[in-house]
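sanity check this:
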Amino acid sequence: MSTTWVEGKASTIAEEQRLWPRRVLVLALNLISWLGLGLLMARIIGGAGWSWAGVAIMLLYLIALPWTLLAFWNAVIGFFILRFHHSPASYTNPALNATPADALIISRTAICVCIRHESVTGVVARVKAMRESLDAMSQSADIEFHVLSDSARPDICAEEAIAFGNDPRLHYRRRTENIGYKAGNLRDFATAHQERIDFMIALDADSLMSGAAILRLIRVMQANPNLGILQTLVTGRPATSAFARIFQFGMRHGMRTHTTGIAWWQGSSGPYWGHNAIIRLHPFVAHCALPVLRDGLPLAGHMLSHDQVEAALMRAAGFDVRVIADEFGSWEENPPRLPDFIRRDLRWCQGNLQYLRLIGKPGFRLMGRFQLCNAVAMYLGAPASVIMLTVGIANGFSGLHGHTPGTLAFGLYFGMLILGFAPRLLGVIDILMRREDRERWGGGFRLLAGAATDAVFTLMIGPVMMVAQSRFIFGLLFGHRIIWEAQQRDDGIVPIREAIGGLWPQFLLGLGFGLATWHVAPASLLWALPTLAGSLLAVPFACFTASPRVGAWMRQVRLCAVPGE
């Protein structure tokens, strides 16, 4: 055991002691907010007289709240750090302070690109770009590129063999069985190469990193031997489709404040998102083997969402898991169409719900269990909200409804909207207050125009995802599940038949809620319109945001443009 490792361990222990007051503060802020909003809802419901429906609505509201509140407070904390600290990333991640920017790289690193039925041309282009970026750096480093394939289709396998098999600077390996999905693919590689490789940079098929970012990750890992996983803040690459363009504009602003906030109080028990991260191989192989859920359908089988479990296991073994909360050359591509976005999200949903089987198992620290709980809570709000609306409507039809305090209800409604928009809004405000950054985003007018577009987009997509997630979770109870397949990454239209076939539940539910609201409480219909619009207009929204003409127009006027476009 090296002296450096022991010193790193002692530093982590000292930091953990400093972090607990921050964690208590975050817990207090969330509990106070949760109780305050709960009391406000209780007063609104109590104005009509308590009933079984009122109790049910109250409980469902309390279930739906925590994830939204935590995201809000993370963003608020992150905003103030971004505004008042000269180096937010170093302040929230002490590992960066111990890393000389020009340190000699003496370790061996493998950059692993995981693919399954992907466009070979796109993968080749991204690998080539990363190699050229590294070659342009005046720094010698022992870095290998590996393409780890789980493809099974004969035509794609043949393409891969031609594209990757004849490149002497690229290592290509294809598994004949997709055991454990992507996590199993990476683990097979790590197990086979742990004796000669120090670090592994895990990339998805759509991932891209600059040479400078790759070398920075390696240097930080070298300088901090107690660091097990180092996650980057991943940003969306400039997109051509309107859907991806608007989504990544808002996500980029929201993730910057959110990630800075969580890094401040999570510290060495930070997030890992499964890609665009560097991993220390020895502890990963020794401690991060994923369990196979043997019983309890429909959540049985291999883990679909591997990242949070691997991070929790790495931290339980005594190694740090940290995130660098700034943008420095780490990119991904986002789904170009709404149907593709829904499919990806539902796969994450199924994977996150598998954590329910692990939360009570031995072998995790408190923060590890929290990360698993938080990942589950991310998807509990949708079914809770749908059931809550259904109960409220049913209560109205039963004649048990009565007068509710309109001003309080109005305030709570818009308060919840503010909570949901806060991470993105605070990110935009932060950029507006920085002249140089404001210009990088195209100036104040374009930034505000993009923010307004994103606000409408968020209002539209929110109900669509709420219904999709709820329908999927209810379907899990009857054995319906998703299998891991390749994602659609290329732009394309959404034919009207595909849109109707995939989004009819959103339309029917929105229509039903709208008619019921008009019958039960017509004065509330105007309030409900922002929520109902997304469901009622889901089909044209999907077609419109996938239209090549709309995407081309947005690029032409630079609406929702991002730096580097």
User: Anything to note?
Assistant: The two ends are 47 Å apart (CA to CA). Residues 3-46 form the longest helix (44 residues). The chain has 20 helices and ten strands. The beta strands are 108-115, 142-149, 170-174, 199-203, 208-209, 227-232, 235-236, 277-280, 320-324, 330-332.
